[in-house]
Amino acid sequence: MTRTKNSERSGKAKGPTNRRGLVESEIYEHATRLFAEKGFASTTLQDIADALGVTRPAVYYYFKTKEAILARLVGEITQTSAADVHEIADRSDLAPAERLRRMTRLNVSRIVAQAARFRLLVKSESELPEEISHAHREARREVLSAFVRVVQDGIRSADFRPIDARTGALGVIGLCNWVAWWYHEGDDTEAVADTLAEMAVASLRRADERLPRERGTDGAIALLREDIDHLEQLLADQRKEG
């Protein structure tokens, strides 16, 4: 699969080339490690300075507060993901299944690339300052809304089964997020991302041959019920648009 857009690449950004960027990245690396080890609330700027072997004012020059470091973490993990999945969700030239595949692959690749930081953010959610917590929640809602929209498009086009779109979207997002806990260094990142992306699409796609889950009239009625649900959803959408 050819990926030409930056958002559909693995999510690994090129490293900074200027001195300030290099120093900020080093501070960020040590700070996020300390947050993971000690917890955000128990980590101070002095702890970060000690880990770097510099003075506290030296750290302060780049990051005025530890909250500023945490804000960068939220920006990298959730806010960037929200913008990028919406970019793919807006691709009207792609079928819903392909959009879902690319969005899932992007999310998995990005989480794998920074699994430790992703786990840190999840563990620190209750400790986030209100302003940062609000930004984090908003970004998560944006990610969910993008996935819901694509699932709804797939239901309307009959590519996906007539299910609750929000439930389907949450299931796919959960599939992506869980990789942060079981992925191991050395695993084939591309293969993991491709496999989970295919699993996400397969979990929602209508079967080519619709075999009833039960024999006899009960199975036939179940299939008919699916078609009626699909028809009702299409009619409801038409009424909203009208």
From TrEMBL:
GO molecular function: DNA-binding transcription factor activity; transcription cis-regulatory region binding
PROSITE patterns reported for this sequence: HTH_TETR_1 (PS01081), HTH_TETR_2 (PS50977)
Keywords: DNA-binding, Transcription, Transcription regulation
Keyword Transmembrane: no
Ranges for region Disordered: 1-22
The keyword ATP-binding belongs to this UniProt entry's keyword annotation: no
DNA-binding annotation, residue ranges on this chain: 44-63
Stretches assigned to the HTH tetR-type domain: 21-81
SUPFAM superfamilies in the record: Homeodomain-like, Tetracyclin repressor-like, C-terminal domain
InterPro entries in the cross-refs: DNA-bd_HTH_TetR-type_CS, Homeodomain-like_sf, HTH-type_TetR-like_transc_reg, HTH_TetR, KstR2_TetR_C, Tet_transcr_reg_TetR-rel_C_sf
Biased composition (Basic and acidic residues): 1-11
Top-level taxon: Bacteria
Name of the molecule in the record: TetR family transcriptional regulator
Organism, as annotated: Streptomyces antimycoticus
